[in-house]
Amino acid sequence: MPLAQTFALALRFSLREMRGGLSGFLVFLACIALGVAAIGGVNSVARSILDGVAGQGQVILGGDIRFQLNLREATSAERAFLTGLGTVSESSVMRSMARLPDGSDQALVEAKAVDEAYPLYGALETDPALPRTDLFGEKAGVYGAVAPDLLFERLKLKPGDRLMLGGATFELRAKLVTESDAVSEGFSLAPRLLISRQGLAASGLLQPGSLVENAYKVRLPAGSSEADLAAIRKQAGEKFPQAGWSIRTRTNAAPALSANIERFSQFLTLVGLTSLVVGGVGVANAVRAYLDGKRAVIATFKSLGASGGFVFAVYLMQILMIAAIGIGIGLLLALFVPFAVSASLQSLIPLPAHGGLYPGALALAALFGVLVTLAFALLPLGRARDVPATALFREMGFESRGLPRLAYVAAALAIAVLLAAMAILLANDRRIATIFVGAAIFAFLVLRTVSAGVQYLARKSPRVRHTALRLAIGNIHRPGALTPSVVLSLGLGLTLLVTLALVDGNLRRQIGASLPERAPNFFFVDIQPADVDAFAALVAREAPEGTLMKVPMLRGRVMALNGVPVDRAAIKPEGAWVLRGDRGITYSATVPENATLSAGTWWPADYQGEPLVSFSAREAGDLELKLGDTVTVNVLGRAITARIANLRQVEWESMGINFVMVFSPDAFAGAPHSWLATLTDKTATQADDARLLNAVTRAYPAVTSVYVKDALDMVNRLVEQIGTAIRAAAGVALVASVLVLAGALAAGNRARIHDAVVLKTLGARRRTLIAAFSLEYMLIGLATAVFALFAGGVAAWFVVARIMSLPSHFLPEVALGTILLSLLLTVGIGLAGTWRVLGQKAAPVLRTL
Fold first, then answer.
1. 268-304 pLDDT, tens per residue?
2. Which residues contact 169 (CB under 8 A, 6 or more apart)?
3. Would the pTM of this model clear 0.85, i.e. be above it?
4. How many helices (H) and strands (E) does the chain have?
5. Residue 94 class from Cβ within 10 Å (0-12 exposed, 13-18 middle, 19+ buried)?
6. What is the Cα–Cα distance from 785 to 122, expressed in whole angstroms?
7. DSSP conformation class of 484
């Protein structure tokens, strides 16, 4: 028969058999739909956010192009260049302490001073809406200010109340509703205080060396192209090679946000793919159970002359049609996710209001769904192809046969390899994706080994006298046992859940317990050189038991490594953060107190010569730097090239005064700078800290005081929000595991019915059978939980200790919770499915034996 006719006939038979409905395929559909919805939804949301950022680049950036300088303002020549490009809006951002006029309370704020042209694009929305002069203008020596609800709540203020910033008084005239360019300026640990540039100048906060970021946003003439933006960047670099400014354009308005969204969506996509692979086990179980119920039909086909290939084609078409329904349901769910998320994020990130349709994300999810279906359906379909009609008529199933023909095994492996390759090649960070995929494959193989080991131990265990336990052990290793399906399906979901729970728990432990024990009470920033000694004396009076550490600090941007500009150098992802933006740097004649040299020697205290630098050992390794290499840093518009004299160990998790780079003192001779200090006092109470903060703010209003506990609380809340999203994603994988578990139990009901009826006929009571089944599920669940704890513990240790470089701890509460959850799922779902089996009448079943 020609191939086309064979295909048409197979399709006709497939459609006829589909008339019986989707009975037995509900778990199949749910697994595929869940995984496809997770992958399609996550990627659609990511694309929605990124498209929102790209589509509104001018609004988010606040201009067509943005030039940023730290610690200094643009020179007259630089200003002339910028004004020659188009309309310029200048703003300055710095952290400082805002305090009540009576000194009773204060709070850290991020003060942003804007000019009359702000914003060039978008809008500044306030409540109430007032003209610009009323919002920020000066009235009887008092300047206007705008702040979000957070600052009003923190200082218990209302519109019309006043506060002090530096030496100036400001009146809060409205609440800040929308600041269109806030996203481009990154995450802040302090609420915004929007003021005028005249108000900032009156505050007296702008001192030589103050940590201030000056941004110059330019609106280019209408019709300016991307080529024009590229030409401007090139011209700025050639005309002002020593400027040290960072340049961003409307096409890259919020690079940090975009990068974080891509990383987070990649992680959630991998979790979704894991849930889809877990669901693939359910696909295999459903296909096997379905074909087991079609034994008579398959035998009839073969008796009438149908070839094995024809049988394979008929049932492959059915499986693909059912998978298409599941994929369709998943895509429909994924389609609405961006619309739902868009509404909730509209106030935070400028997303398209309509959510958007993202065919690429949906097509990727659908492709993953098809590949997973094929990878897990080919083996049971291949077994059905080669089972002879005589065996089928004798009620022999597919379990007794080994692997199908090599072609089917090779095809299933090829599809699995394609799935892994796609997950890695389409990932933003291929290293993490490779580790994730490798861990999933390893867990898959090990779980098979675990299930085989459990069955082997059950088979070799000594005979026990307890009837229920003996039956349970026998059920674990008998032909067609549920052990492989239960261990595999539940093991992957529990392993992922344990991994994420341990990572989340270690982060919380680090931030909530370990860090506060080691971290200082306060960071003090922007201490002027002339005030250092007097400031230290004040702190000594207010906190006599405290330890004050102080160092000079500047800000610098790494421009080149060994003479190669950083934008042309091949940098590992782990070390890229050092080169991103400005870094705090310092100088010292002697080895810092908290430093341990790991290579090289420190320079003499009276050293005079070429600039030298001490580099953090771990970051040097990430950047592939060694002793004798050179680093070029731009500080205040001046490029300084220093040779690496030594490497030192830095404990970043201590939250003390640590720097990637410590220079020899002669490198910055005469450069204006401020001082940074930390105060550590473990005997201080919260009242003591409040009193000290009040005294420092009154005496030195220009000094920024960061109360570490408040900063840690904010970081903890952020970690909690991220952890919630991650746990929700892991929950999807666990739901898929539960579905597969339920499907595996349902697929084994036929054999259970026969066993139960025979045992009841031989005199077994319902109580004995329930005890036997409960013990069976409990033993399998316990073995699965032990594996999940071990595998999840190893994976979490790798993430926390190797990737995050933090101390890793095993958390007993996670272990106990995992065991209880595993037992609850296996025993609960097992008994729920078995209850119907125990109620079967004996006569109808015995007639079929």
1. 677 777 777 777 777 777 787 777 777 777 777 777 7
2. 101, 141, 142, 143, 162, 163
3. no
4. 27, 22
5. buried
6. 54
7. H
